[in-house]
Write a structure and sequence with these properties.
By secondary structure, the protein is an alpha/beta fold. The chain has two domains: about 15-80, Ribosomal Protein L25, Chain P, CATH 2.40.240; about 90-245, Alpha/beta knot (3-Layer(aba) Sandwich), CATH 3.40.1280.10. It is built from seven helices and 14 strands. It has helices at about 30-40, 95-110, 130-145, 160-165, 180-190, 205-215, 230-245, and strands spanning about 15, 25-30, 50, 55-65, 70-80, 90, 115, 120, 150, 155, 170-175, 180, 195-200, 220. The strands form three sheets. A seven-stranded parallel sheet has the order 9-7-6-13-11-14-12, with helices on both faces. A five-stranded mixed sheet has the order 1-3-4-5-2. Strand 6, helix 2 and strand 7 form a beta-alpha-beta unit.
C-alpha cells in the first residue's frame, strides 16, 4: 500500500495571524492574506494552511470556506510551540529604503529578537514606515518557517538610545576604527543579554563614537579588515553572533 501523505504537507501556505490560536478555533482571513490564499495559492475547502500567532506557536488548519473577500479556517492541531528567541537586539542605523528593507528581512531570518532602528547624524533617512516594515518582517518569518516575530521598535535618536540603555545588556559597537575581534567578544558574552550597534552609510561622527564608547556596557568590535556597507555590517555581525553566542 502507498504511504499516507504527511499532513499538513510541507508545501502548505504559512501565515501569521493576530488572534491566539487553539484547537477547534475558527479563523477568518481577510485582506491581502485572503487574496494570497484564494487567488495566488488557490486553496479550496479541505486544504491545509499553517498558522502562527507569535504567542503559542505553529498550528495546522483546514480551509472550510473560500469567499470573495475572506477565507475561513478551522484550527486542527499544534505542530510546534513558539520558538525560544535569543536575547539579542539589533540596533542598525537607518539606511536607504531598499538597503534597510534587506536588513529587516535578513535580521528576521537570522533570528533577531528585537530590531531597534536608529537615527544618527549621517543617516540619509530619518523615518521608517512601521506598518510596511512589519509586513517585511512578517513575510520573512513566514518564508523561513519562524514561529516568532522579531519585535520592531520605532526609530530613536542615538543619544536617546544611549541615555536609556539597560545596565545588564552588553552593547557591541561595530566600530570602523577598530576594536576587539567580534567573534572573541561574542564568545566571551555567551548567555548574557546583548545588542549589536551598526552605523549608517556615512559612518558615525567623532562625537557619536565618543558617546558610544563612553557607555560602560559598550564594547567596540571589529568585523575584519574591510570597510563594510551598513547593511552588510548589520547582517554579518548578527550572523557571527548567532554562530558564536546564539542558537546556531
Amino acid at each position: 500500500m502507498p504511504a499516507t501523505p504527511a499532513w499538513p504537507p510541507k508545501s502548505a501556505p504559512r501565515l501569521f495571524v493576530a488572534e491566539t490560536l487553539a484547537a477547534g478555533a475558527a479563523v477568518r482571513i481577510e485582506g491581502n492574506a485572503a487574496h494570497y490564499l484564494a487567488r495566488v495559492m488557490r486553496v479550496a475547502a479541505g486544504d491545509a494552511v499553517i498558522l502562527c500567532d507569535d504567542m503559542t506557536g505553529e498550528w495546522a488548519a483546514r480551509v472550510t470556506d473560500v469567499g470573495k473577500r475572506d477565507v475561513m479556517l478551522e484550527v486542527a492541531a499544534m505542530l510546534r510551540p513558539r520558538e525560544a528567541v535569543p536575547d539579542l537586539w539589533l540596533c542598525p542605523a537607518l539606511l536607504k529604503k531598499d538597503r534597510f528593507d534587506f536588513v529587516l528581512e535578513k535580521a528576521t531570518e537570522l533570528g533577531a529578537g528585537l530590531i531597534q532602528p536608529l537615527v544618527t547624524r549621517r543617516c540619509v533617512a530619518d523615518k521608517l514606515n512601521l506598518e510596511r516594515a512589519r509586513a517585511i518582517t512578517t513575510e520573512a518569518a513566514e518564508q523561513c518557517a519562524r514561529t516568532a516575530l522579531p519585535q520592531l521598535a520605532e526609530p530613536v535618536k542615538l543619544d536617546a538610545l544611549l541615555a536609556d540603555w539597560p545596565e545588564s545588556r552588553a552593547l557591541f559597537f561595530a566600530d570602523e576604527n577598530g576594536g576587539e575581534p567580534a567573534a572573541e567578544a561574542f564568545r566571551d558574552s555567551k548567555g548574557a543579554p546583548a545588542a549589536i550597534l551598526t552605523g549608517p552609510e556615512g559612518g558615525f561622527d567623532d562625537a557619536e563614537r565618543a558617546g558610544i564608547r563612553a557607555l560602560p556596557q559598550s564594547r567596540s568590535i571589529t568585523l575584519g579588515p574591510r570597510i563594510l556597507r551598513g547593511e552588510t555590517a548589520a547582517i554579518a555581525a548578527l550572523a557571527l553572533w548567532m554562530g558564536t553566542a546564539g542558537d546556531w
